[in-house]
Amino acid sequence: MHDVKPTTGDTSWFTHDRFGLFIHWGLYALAARHEWVQNNEQIPPEEYEAKYFKHFDPDLYDPEEWAKAASNAGMKYFVVTTKHHEGFCLWDTMLTDYKSINTPCGRDLIRPMVEAFRNHNMRVGLYHSLIDWHHPNYTIQSIHPLRNHPDKDKLNEGRDLSEYREYLHGQVREILTRFGRVDVLFLDFSYGDKGRDAWDSERLVELIRELQPQIILNDRLDLQDVEGGWDIRTPEQFLPRKWVEVNGQKVVWETCQTFSGSWGYHRDESSWKSVDQLVRMLIEVVSMGGNLLLNVGPTGRGEFDARALDRLQGMGEWMKRHDRSIYGCTQAPDEFTAPQDCRLTYNPETNRMYVHIFAWPFRHLHLDGFRDRVEYAQLLNDASEVPLSTVPEHERQYGDADARTLTLNLPVVRPDVAVPVVELYMK
Ligand code: GLC
Known about the structure:
The protein folds into 2 domains: 312 residues, Glycosidases (TIM Barrel, Alpha-Beta Barrel); 85 residues, Golgi alpha-mannosidase II (Immunoglobulin-like). It has 13 helices and 16 strands. By secondary structure, the chain is of the alpha/beta class. The structure holds alpha-D-glucopyranose. The site of alpha-D-glucopyranose has 8 residues, from loops.
C-alpha cells in the first residue's frame, strides 16, 4: 500500500504495535532536575559520585508495577536506559564498578525489569548512551561536565578514546547477550566531535547484527548514509508534518516524547502535557505511519510519580475502547483525505478506516471522496451506529458538497472521551 524502505531488523511487529514506553532512570533521578544535570551544572565526576552514587537507593522499585502501568496504558514495548550520558550502569556489568550493584540499592535493576515487562507480553528494548561523562578515557570536548576545566588539555593527554571505544563495544556485547532476545537497541548519540570514527560505528553495527539479527537499530551512530547502518528514524520532541522520508522514500519511524520536557525525573517542571494532548499525539503519529515512544522518568525511590501515572491511566482509558484505530493501523491510502479537524488511520488487514474527530462538528461530518466506499459506520466508544447519507438536498444548494461526498450523521452531543473515533467498514 505504502512503499516503505525495508529494514535489516525485524520491524513487522513494530509497525503493528505503534506505542511504547521509554524509561530514563539513573542517578540523575536524585537531583530531580534533568538527566543532563551533570553537564548543565558542570559537576565534576567525583562530586557527582559523592552525592548521587553514594545515595542511590530506590527502595520502592517494583518493576511489576511499572509493567502493569505501561500495559494498561496500551503500550506494547519498552525501552530502558541501561546507561545514560552520566555513565552509571543499571545492570551488573563486568566492565566497571560504576553500577547499581555498588550503590546502597545493591541490585541489578535491568534483569527484573526485562522479566516483568516480558510477563506482560511487552517487547524489550534497551537504550545505551554512546556518550559517557564518567569514563576516564572519554575525551573532554564540547559536551562534557569538565569542558571548562582549567586543566582540560592536560586531562585529555591522559585520555585514550580507543580504550573507551573497546569499553563501549564490550558493554554493548554484554547487554545483547545477558537478557535473551532484545527487540530494539537505542544508541544515543553522535555530535560534532564524536561520530562514526569515535565509536567505530561500522564495526559496532556488525557486532549488533551478529548478536541479535532481528534487532531494530535506531539512527544515531552517524551512519545515516550507510546501508544497514540504521533501521528507524527517530525525530525527538517534535512532530513531523508528514510520514518521515529519506531520499524521497518513506521509512519506518518512531518519535520519542516526554510528558514534561525532561527525560529523567524532574520534580519541579510544570509543563506537563494533558491526557488529551497525548492521545492526539499518538493519533497524529499513527496517521503519518509512525510510532510513539512515550517517556517516564521514575523517581529516586523507584516509582512512577503521580503525574505520570495519571497520564498513563488516562491514555489507557482511551486505548481500552479505541486501540483498534491504533494497532495494525497506518496512514490512510493517498486517495483519501481527512476532513477538517480530523485525522485518518487505516487498517489494511481488516479494511477499516478510522476518523478521529479533534473538534466535534454540528451533526454532519462530510467525507469528500468516500461516497460508495463505506459499508457501515459506528462510533468506536460504544459501537453505536452512525447513519450514512448523501448531503441533504437543502444543504447541497449551498455548494457544501459534491456527488462524491458521504455524510456521517453524528449525535449533537459529543461522546465523553478524549478523542471520539468513527470506525468505517470500507467496501
Ligand atoms: C537526547 C538526550 C537525552 C535523551 C534522548 C532521548 O539525545 O541527550 O537525554 O536520552 O535524547 O532520545
